[in-house]
Amino acid sequence: MKAVAITFPSREVRVLDVSEPRLHSPTEVKVRTLEVGVCGTDQDILKGHHGAAPKGEDHLILGHECVGEVVEVGVHVQGLKVGDLVVPRVRRPCPHTRCPACRHGHPDFCVTGDYTERGIQGAHGFCAEFFVEDAAYLHRADDALRGVAVLTEPLTIAEKGLREVAHIQSRLPWKVQPGKALVLGAGPVAQLGAMALMRAGYEVTAYSRSPKPNEKAAAAESIGVPYVSSKEVTVEALKKQLGGGVDVIYEATGASKVAFDSLNVLEENGVLIFTGVPGREEPLELQGAEVLGQLVLGNRVMFGTVNASDGDFSAALEDLARFRARWPGKVEQLITQRHPPSEFVKVVEAKGGIKHVITFQEHAR
After folding, report:
1. Looking at the predicted structure, is the pLDDT value of residue 286 above 80?
2. What pLDDT score does 15 carry?
3. Nearest to 281 by CA among 254, 303, 310
4. Is the pLDDT of residue 19 over 70?
5. Cis status of the peptide bond prior to 88, with omega within 30 of 0
6. Angle 359-189-309 (CA atoms, 0-180°, nearest 5)?
7. Is the pLDDT of residue 310 over 90?
8. E-assigned strands of 163-299?
9. CA–CA separation, 270 vs 297, rounded Å?
10. Is 337 exposed, middle or buried (0-12, 13-18, 19+ CB in 10 A)?
């Protein structure tokens, strides 16, 4: 079968002919890949910042954002059948007994760092015609989501973030109502985050670099999210424009300076969620005393979030259905273009648009 893989140590990306996987356990499921999303993590793998092949192998099959169709199920599999649409989770737990997170089913909070991630770290990904996965790591999706379910994994970032915000806000001695939220960035993680925040009841504004008009600004504003360019409006001016501060900031840029500058817009008791990994070449100068003062004197909280849990994937699939009902056609417009597997590198390096996807659908039923 065809698979998109990066070889080591050259880090050359090619479409390889590899053996088609088979079931080796009664709880496994064989899946025909339909679509695989491409993101900044894939770019970091190609640049050498991330990525490791499975032990004893010289290549890593890429792809961690995926939707596929079940073609075979093990004899002990329940709840899935041939023809079902499924989305796989990415991270697998570490083997250490000392890791309470992994032993309690939350490898997204792994404390050892010795986990594996499909398509990223030590385990083959999903950018192949077929893959095999244990049923415990698969989520069944409604067939109506076939055209957008590839967005599930990036949406789980927001689902986990909002879940953590709820825990943090529960520390306050009164019930916190959704207020204002600021989304930093306008890529797919940011757009989906804005939708999730609106679903949760927040009044959302997007703050990103490029001036209007542009495709990302149009997508945000089409669902009622005002778009402001950081090239045209400073953080200080933004606060005035918003009529005050915000309660939640959802960072989805990987631009550290913008994220820390945005603390000036965060209200007392507010929460700043980091989701982006800063660019390796980006210089960062921090006014440490000012940042600490903002956090301490305003009871503000900053936290980072990566990967997601079983529940976050389920929540993301439920929210995709809600988004499509609330904003018909708007989730679909986040997918800028679909490409054949041979264009994986081109897609990783592509500029413009919102979300680019590798499709295997010509092989589907």
Report:
1. no
2. 97
3. 254
4. yes
5. no
6. 90
7. yes
8. 180-184, 203-208, 227-229, 246-251, 266-274
9. 12
10. middle
